[in-house]
Design brief:
By secondary structure, the chain is of the alpha/beta class. The protein contains nine helices and nine strands. The protein folds into two domains: 172 residues, Rossmann fold; 86 residues, Pantoate-beta-alanine ligase, C-terminal domain (Pantoate--beta-alanine Ligase, Chain: A,domain 2, 2-Layer Sandwich). Helix 6 crosses helix 7 and helix 8 runs antiparallel to helix 9. The structure holds pantoate (PAF). The site of pantoate has 10 residues, from strand 2 and helix 6.
């Protein structure tokens, strides 16, 4: 397994592969990998000649009061999972390489970044868009793979990639869940047994909303209200039914929508969503 630490060495390797006519897939991560990440790596390994997994806990997407310092870090275990899942290289720069002194350039995806998670975490998508662009520049992938659990992130990255002509195909992969429905997330590691139990209300609320829509309910306010009522024992951040493409709230379900939510269980903020074709 090759491990690259700087954009220069990463780019040289990638150019070599692409010059030989080989395709390169990138799975961007912040490490502490789980079965959801494994699914992304396997999807790339099945499609691309070479798969690179980036591991970088990106300080630019955390506010000072958030969990950057305690975000789980598990480099050795991550390397094992990455190798088993069929990847060929890891790109793991450090913060000083990514954001050297004097760093001043950030990317914003106006409109899409402001609602949903952007309301509570106004810094977040600017940090994500910036780091993903930097990762694309270093790895020069043909394709990049993102999980749909971060539904807003996936829409923002698709928009940014198109707007900036980055020439990377964005592939999205369905959320991987535990057997009881909890969406896989590196932050689940923060949950005590009791908090994890409470966290299940999130996916139950989503599945209830989905069942309502499948049964023909089209009134957005009713769907949101019923889903929210199921989110007990947690501090709800938001529950919204939005257009799946532009993330704007809808009144009625008459096209592809995303039922999306975030809530705090103890100090841990969990997010989840499902898409419905409409
Ligand atoms: O989804 C994540 O893990 C992160 O937001 C990403 C895309 C790796 C950027 O840091």
């Amino acid at each position: 397994m090759k491990i690259f630490r700087t954009p220069g060495e990463m780019r040289r390797w990638s150019f070599e592969q692409r010059a030989r006519g080989k395709s390169v897939g990138l799975v961007p991560t912040m490490g502490a990998l789980h079965a959801g990440h494994r699914a992304l790596v396997e999807a790339s390994a099945a499609r691309d000649d070479f798969t690179v997994v980036s591991i970088f806990v990106n300080p630019a997407q955390f506010a000072p009061h958030e969990d950057f310092d305690k975000y789980p870090r598990a480099f050795e275990g991550d390397c094992r999972l990455i190798e088993e899942a069929g990847a060929h290289a890891i790109y793991a720069p450090d913060a000083a390489t990514m954001y050297p002194e004097g760093y001043a350039t950030y990317i914003e995806v106006k409109g899409l970044q402001d609602g949903l998670c952007g309301k509570t975490r106004p810094h977040f998508f600017r940090g994500v868009a910036t780091v993903v662009t930097k990762l694309f520049n270093a790895v020069q992938p043909d394709r990049a793979y993102f999980g749909l659990k971060d539904g807003q992130q996936a829409v923002i990255i698709q928009r940014m990639t198109k707007d900036l002509d980055l020439g990377v195909e964005i592939v999205t992969i369905p959320t991987v869940r535990e057997a009881d429905g909890l969406a896989m997330s590196s932050r689940n590691a923060y949950l005590s047994r009791e908090e994890r139990e409470r966290g299940l209300s999130l996916s139950r609320a989503l599945f209830h909303g989905q069942a309502l829509m499948e049964a023909g309910e089209r009134d957005a306010a009713r769907i949101v209200e019923e889903a929210r009522a199921m989110m007990t024992d947690m501090k709800v951040d938001y529950v919204e039914l939005v257009d799946a493409a532009n993330l704007q709230p809808v009144d009625r379900v008459d096209g592809p929508v995303m039922l999306t939510m975030a809530a705090f269980v103890g100090n841990t903020r969990l997010i989840d969503n499902i898409k419905f074709k409409g």
